[in-house]
Amino acid sequence: MEAKEFKEFVKATVDKIVDYNESLRDRKVLPDVEPGYLSKLIPEEAPQKGESWQDVFSDIERVIMPGVTHWNSPHFHAYYPTANSYPAIVGELLSAGIGGVGFSWIASPACTELEVVTMNWLGKMLGLPKEFLNCSEGPGGGVIQGSASEATLVGLLAAKERMVRHIKKENPDMDEGIIKSKLVAYTSNQSNSSVEKSGLLGSMPMRLLPVDDKCSLRGATLLEMMKTDREAGLIPCYIVATLGTTGTCAFDNLEEIGPICKENNMWLHIDAAYAGAAFVCPEYRHLMSGIEYADSFNFNPHKWLLTNFDCSALWVKDSRSLIEAFNVERIYLTHDKEGLCPDYRHWQIPLGRRFRALKLWFVLRLYGIEGLQEHIRHSINLAKRFESRVQSDERFEIVTERSMGLICFRLKGENLLTRDLYDRILKRKRIYLTAATYQDRLIIRFVVCSRLCLEEDIDYAWNEITSQASEIINSQTHQTGIESAEKPVKKLEHSGKHLGAITARIEGLNINKAKVLQKIS
Ligand SMILES: *Cc1c(COP(=O)(O)O)cnc(C)c1O
């Protein structure tokens, strides 16, 4: 492809991106396709001769769009958000345009240095303790990882290395393999699946600890498990505390956990993948108190801070622990400016790395701190709007308190009802939500995700939810009515269990029980 054609192609694509974003509200948030749909639309072999860009371009609507889940639709309220903004998209384009790999300073000085600076900006915006920043005196610093999952694994591997060194210092004769086989890690049973996975990948048993009724991991629980492990000859090494769990956006108790880690020389990693973005607003910073105990802190600008995937921000207090864990020297990787700037290859799992700081830089400059604060506050205000809708309808209950942009709610009564509601909403595909459980109760998670989301979209979602809830409740009442007509009263009286089940369901729905019972008899 020549430059002239590239310009035409990219201009058409930019128009397409804008049209797509502007049409998001009108597209059904979930696609209608079945597995295997795509292979039916394109040939089984790659083309022998190159095609025209126009042919490829026209296949975007025909082949791709029918199978796209519109994550940035204002009707997408599932999981957590994935960020998207025009400045970030341009940053991605430019990164591809420059197209280097910045594994060391010399491999692309701008790539490394812009990352150092933007990570300092971002860390200051969040109010992180200065020990985490590259611009402070000590060995702290920030690095962009591909995902929170990678950050958790990086923390685990660094923790392992640090603990081995620590133990070897006191017991020089102890075998490294034996030490490693005794290390254990801890997290709550509410932490993201990627935390458990990091234990698998890093060969360290990851204990999933129970939480309190606010889904928060407490110090006493951790201490108790550590004691059991120590008694079994094991060595507590790594703990992942979550600020904003994936299920209910709960916050682990850092003020209790932190001192335990310090005393026991354990590495404390904080996973704030989603909620961390809120710390750009000073009013939410109290939620990270205790962060001063952490060895590493991570959040995803690619979730709630308008920077397209992938961009996961990791800070460590002592970058030497990463370098000691990951440094593998080769003559072709060394350069004469070593030590003056970070060589980020030592701070991550892969060697190669993209110029991701560009999109972060564009976002930070084009939105500014105030623009980003506004984005967070806007999302939370919309979540409050949804919360008050749920509160004002007595058929529903909020199960765990609203946290950030997440509301966990359900229909009062048996899980079956909420299950039915959830299935109906998913089948209609007008909005997208995810379900979860809380203490055996089925809940629906509603998250304000898209940057395009407005008050009217919250009301649209609430209308969709209540219209389906009403249908369920009407059909329930109706069914009960039919049963009463068909079955003699006596029979019902004898099957007390059955009647109990019905009344329980009805109570849960807040329908006047007396009235329905009257109908039955
Ligand atoms: C989303 C999420 C993750 C995973 O993030 P990736 O960047 O996709 O790895 C980890 N932890 C929490 C709490 C999350 O919400």
From TrEMBL:
Required cofactor names: pyridoxal 5'-phosphate
Top-level division of the source organism's lineage: Eukaryota
Keywords per UniProt: Lyase, Pyridoxal phosphate
Cited InterPro entries: Aromatic_deC (IPR010977), PyrdxlP-dep_de-COase (IPR002129), PyrdxlP-dep_Trfase (IPR015424), PyrdxlP-dep_Trfase_major (IPR015421), PyrdxlP-dep_Trfase_small (IPR015422), Pyridoxal-P_BS (IPR021115)
Record-level GO BP terms: amino acid metabolic process; carboxylic acid metabolic process; catecholamine metabolic process
Similarity comment text for this entry: Belongs to the group II decarboxylase family.
Protein's recorded name: Uncharacterized protein
Organism, as annotated: Cotesia glomerata (Lepidopteran parasitic wasp)
